[in-house]
Write a structure and sequence with these properties.
The protein is α/β, with parallel strands linked by helices and 381 residues long. It has 12 helices and 11 strands. Strands 1, 2, 3, 4, 5, 6, 7, 8, 9, 10 and 11 form an 11-stranded mixed sheet that branches. Helix 4 packs across helix 12, helix 5 packs across helix 12 and helix 6 packs parallel to helix 12. The longest helix has 21 residues. The protein is globular. The N terminus and C terminus are likely disordered.
């Protein structure tokens, strides 16, 4: 019996021995509080119990992706809810995700789905630069990503470890876009500029980037909108800018990268009927409204929902092919690790703001989630 299978059986036996509802197993790398809210709503509307295998903030998504790969001969998960798209694409390309077609997904917006309908994007976030409103004056606010290489930010920039979460996909998008629109070598020049500015790479994820700016350990950082919104909800003195990938303000399609959550059915999962029910719920307008209203303020991709949240719209999204980005993600990440983390003494991954020493996903029943917290960001939405 696999480790996860054993843990799931123990959780089922200990958590609700008299609960005879059918079960669905959800692997989720989205922020814990968001997952709990959605699972609670699903269980209230369906006679299905959800067992959730969560993730940590420090190793966002990567740990669960590796588990799905390791379990390919005997899948334990039914549905994968990822907080990003690029590693989901990699799983689809390896044949580990199943096609899902329903009345609600037949007309799913093309940019937000796989051509073979093995994954669907929803409830997006934007990649932004967070900055301290106390230490960064109006004239010092960066407007483009390349601005972070300017000398005025030396020793004051942080980013999350790119091997995990959305940061790696963003670097892949930079490489794809800049190689196409500016020329070969521009991405490498960006990394060189960050290295010369002594950027610090944090192992505490995008939430740790925001924390570092809040505590004064940095003035600016590369992160996601949901972590910025969560910090602002706590009254912390930070703001963010939606940076462009091109310096010409008149160019369109070269603005801010948007990264959707993704939902997919794991091929060969143990509960296919319940998996479809959960997928339908995750991709519903109600769920996307829930996430847009949440502290994370996720950006809706469904037109009927998006029109009700105009304040969350990104004015000029970066036009980039997610599939092409997924293909170069590892290459772009390896370049960043080599230049920013391995080449310079003292530039190894920083442990400041660390939450959790290692990746040990916790399993909880959605029904009893309030009493069994998972590991992860302590101020996740």
């Amino acid at each position: 019996m696999g480790v996860i299978a054993g843990v799931l059986l123990c959780a089922m036996a200990a958590g609700c021995s008299r609960d005879d509802r059918p079960t669905v197993v959800l692997y989720a790398s989205a922020d814990d509080a968001v997952v709990r809210e959605v699972v609670k709503a699903f269980e209230a509307a369906h006679k299905v119990r959800v067992l959730v295998v969560g993730d940590t903030e420090a190793q966002k998504t990567t740990g669960l992706v590796e588990r799905i790969k390791a379990e390919k001969d005997r899948p334990q998960a039914d549905v994968f809810w990822s907080s990003e798209v690029f590693m989901t694409i990699a799983l689809a390309d390896q044949g580990l995700l199943d096609e899902y077609l329903s009345d609600s997904t037949v007309n799913w917006p093309t940019p937000w789905r796989d051509g073979q309908r093995r994954w669907f994007g929803f409830a997006a976030r934007a990649r932004v630069i967070v900055y301290s409103t106390e230490r960064v004056s109006a004239e010092r606010i960066p407007q483009t990503w390349m601005d972070l290489t300017q000398a005025k930010y030396r020793d004051r920039v942080v980013m999350a470890d790119p091997r995990y979460g959305t940061t790696g996909g963003h670097l892949g998008a930079m490489q794809v876009y800049w190689t196409r629109e500016v020329g070969p070598g521009y991405y490498e020049a960006f990394l060189e500029g960050l290295a010369e500015n002594h950027i610090r790479v944090l192992s505490s994820g995008n939430a740790g980037v925001v924390d570092a700016v809040v505590r004064g350990e940095a003035d600016v950082g590369m992160t996601d909108t949901d972590d910025v919104w969560a910090a602002k909800a706590r009254g912390l003195k930070i703001e963010c800018v939606y940076p462009r990938h091109h310096v010409d303000p008149n160019e369109t399609g070269c603005g801010t990268l948007i990264i959707p959550n993704t939902a997919a059915i794991v091929k060969g999962g143990p509960h296919p009927k319940e998996a479809k029910e959960l997928m339908e719920f995750l991709l519903s307008e109600d769920t996307e409204r829930m996430l847009a209203k949440s502290e994370s303020h996720n950006i809706p991709v469904q037109e009927q929902v998006a029109k009700d949240f105009p304040q969350l719209a990104v004015a000029d999204p970066l036009q980039v092919d997610y599939v092409k980005v997924a293909a170069v993600r590892d290459e772009a990440v390896n370049k960043a690790v080599k230049r920013l983390m391995n080449d310079q003494p003292g530039q190894q991954v920083s442990n400041e703001s660390e939450r959790g020493e290692s990746f040990t996903p916790e399993v909880y029943s959605g029904h009893s989630a309030e009493s069994q917290p998972t590991s992860g960001s302590d101020h996740a939405p």
